[in-house]
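Ops channel
N.P.: pipeline sanity check, posting one input/output pair.
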């Protein structure tokens, strides 16, 4: 076993969350070790980004120009065949006054290249990056505080001590259990996703050619993500009860499901499924919607999929992961620099992170409810009016301020149902894509649940704009945006 090493912070995982928190802490001059269990580049799903990541987080990482020059497919927004109408409609970033201008786009990315850019950037900022070094356990002091980790470096055991450990190791890691508590899975979003890749698929017309296409069908919905002129990521999301059939023959199940979604099937009419290389597999993810009881404990924080994940329908995964990384970095930096007591800094991290998760949870619940006219099992089970008490209790806890017991559950249900109705009306007023009304989405963006879901991302993009505390009695970003500051 190698001797103890010491760093200010140890980060577990080199994906977008891990490389981001490591870079942002290193930018404040603190020593950071990043342990990644795999060798980059490696495959990951989650290819469709939001503007807050591209123009907010990447700016703070000082990697915005490199990402812009990587040749990724430009994404103006999303095109959806979803809701009461049968014609696709657009959700375009530029229509939002908060996202207008040069930052009104995002990218569809090859995650192997995008993640490599972020990890290499962390090393450039002074992070000690070690690949093929999985963490195997945490170190604690006599009071139970996490003080470091045990890890393996090509079979050689080592230990490293740190003031903070950040777990960004994803959904399959187990070290998140060190903070205590449980991971709670959502029944409402209890789906299974099966996905693969095609060469030669069609593209949407004109400036929408880079949009993600999401289309509902009887048994669920499909995504269609143009990664380049030739390569397309395609997935089908169905109820978890289909898991056995999917696992029995995932390729055939995938092709059958995609074939039942007419608009996606039409886009693939002349396409060929990729069967070789990293994109040649048909992959499956199931029971992926969850949140842990807490996102931090003494000496340890969770970010990214180690902390929570909602649903892939609006490309929120990388946003929530990198947003959590930014919050964690600000709180850690504020404590290490002596600017704030730990309790105050970590309360800001936990409160803001849970708030953003709850905002997207509410929005995506409402988005599924928009499809309420469908009477198939998948969509009947995803009506806000029928959401189960377990999910309602979790939502009421996330939102906060709701009474406990039956009164609180009824209030939570009313809120979700109302959000679904308002969102449905906003979509109906938008009009079909490729028409003048499809470019005018004022009603949709005035919908409270849409306004809320855009707010924090737009603040990150704005950068350096003085703001009010997001939480009652809370903090605001520091002048350099890498820490927290008190108001007044």
């Amino acid at each position: 076993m190698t001797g103890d090493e010491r760093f200010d912070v140890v980060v577990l995982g080199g994906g977008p969350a891990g490389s981001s928190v490591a870079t942002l802490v290193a930018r404040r001059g603190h020593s950071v070790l990043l342990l990644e269990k795999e060798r980059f580049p490696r495959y990951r799903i989650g290819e469709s980004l939001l503007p807050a990541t591209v123009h907010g987080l990447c700016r703070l990482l000082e990697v915005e120009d490199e990402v812009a020059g990587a040749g990724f497919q430009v994404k103006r927004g999303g095109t959806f065949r979803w809701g009461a109408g049968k014609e696709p409609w657009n959700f375009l970033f530029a229509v939002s006054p908060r996202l207008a201008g040069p930052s009104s786009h995002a990218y569809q990315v090859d995650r192997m290249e995008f993640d490599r850019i972020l990890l290499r950037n962390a090393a450039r900022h002074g992070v000690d990056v070690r690949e093929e070094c999985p963490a195997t356990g945490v170190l604690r002091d006599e009071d139970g505080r996490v003080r470091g980790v045990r890890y393996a470096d090509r079979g050689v055991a080592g230990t490293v001590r740190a003031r903070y450990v950040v777990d960004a190791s994803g959904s399959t890691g187990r070290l998140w259990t060190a903070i205590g508590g449980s991971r709670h899975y959502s029944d409402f979003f209890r789906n299974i996703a099966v996905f693969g890749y095609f060469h030669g698929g069609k593209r949407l017309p004109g400036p929408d050619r880079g949009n993600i296409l999401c289309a509902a069908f009887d048994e669920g919905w499909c995504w269609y993500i143009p990664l380049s002129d030739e390569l397309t990521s395609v997935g089908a999301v169905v109820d978890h009860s289909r898991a056995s059939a999917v696992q029995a023959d995932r390729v055939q199940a995938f092709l059958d499901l995609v074939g039942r979604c007419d608009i996606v099937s039409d886009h693939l009419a002349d396409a060929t499924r990729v069967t070789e290389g990293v994109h040649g597999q048909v992959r499956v993810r199931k029971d992926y919607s969850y949140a842990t009881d807490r996102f931090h404990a003494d000496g340890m924080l969770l970010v990214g999929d180690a902390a929570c994940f909602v649903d892939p329908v609006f490309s929120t995964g990388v946003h929530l992961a990198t947003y959590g990384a930014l919050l964690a970095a600000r709180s850690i930096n504020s404590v290490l620099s002596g600017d704030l007591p730990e309790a105050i800094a970590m309360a800001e991290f936990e409160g803001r992170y849970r708030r953003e998760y709850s905002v997207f949870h509410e929005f995506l619940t409402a988005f599924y409810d928009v499809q309420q006219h469908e009477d198939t099992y998948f969509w009947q089970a995803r009506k806000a009016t029928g959401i189960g008490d377990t999910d309602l209790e979790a939502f009421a806890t996330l939102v906060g301020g709701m009474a406990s017991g039956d009164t609180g559950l009824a209030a939570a249900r009313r809120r979700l149902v109302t959000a679904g109705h308002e969102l449905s009306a906003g979509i109906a007023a938008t009009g079909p894509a490729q028409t003048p009304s499809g470019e005018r989405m004022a009603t949709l963006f005035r919908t409270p649940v849409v306004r809320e879901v855009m707010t924090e991302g737009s603040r990150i993009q704005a950068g350096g704009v003085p703001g009010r505390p997001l939480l009652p009695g809370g903090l605001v970003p520091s002048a350099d945006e890498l820490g927290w500051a008190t108001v007044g």
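N.P.: looks fine end to end. The CA atoms of residues 50 and 424 lie 22 Å apart.
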